[in-house]
Amino acid sequence: MTGADTKTTILDAAEGLFAEHGYDGTSLRSVTARAKVNLAAVNYHFGGKERLAIEVLVRHVGPINAERHRRLDALPTRPTMAAIVRAFVEPVFPVRAGCPAGPAAPGRDFCRMFGRMMAEQPPFLRAFLAGQFRELGHRFVACVRSTRTGIDPATAWWRLHFMAGAMAHTLLAGDGIAHLTEGLCDPDDAETTVEQLVAFVAAGLAGPPTPSRGRAARPARTQKRRSRR
Amino acid sequence: MTGADTKTTILDAAEGLFAEHGYDGTSLRSVTARAKVNLAAVNYHFGGKERLAIEVLVRHVGPINAERHRRLDALPTRPTMAAIVRAFVEPVFPVRAGCPAGPAAPGRDFCRMFGRMMAEQPPFLRAFLAGQFRELGHRFVACVRSTRTGIDPATAWWRLHFMAGAMAHTLLAGDGIAHLTEGLCDPDDAETTVEQLVAFVAAGLAGPPTPSRGRAARPARTQKRRSRR
DNA sequence: GTCTATAGGGGGATAGAC
DNA sequence: GTCTATCCCCCTATAGAC
Question: Are B71 and B91 in contact (CB under 8 A)?
Answer without folding.
Answer: yes
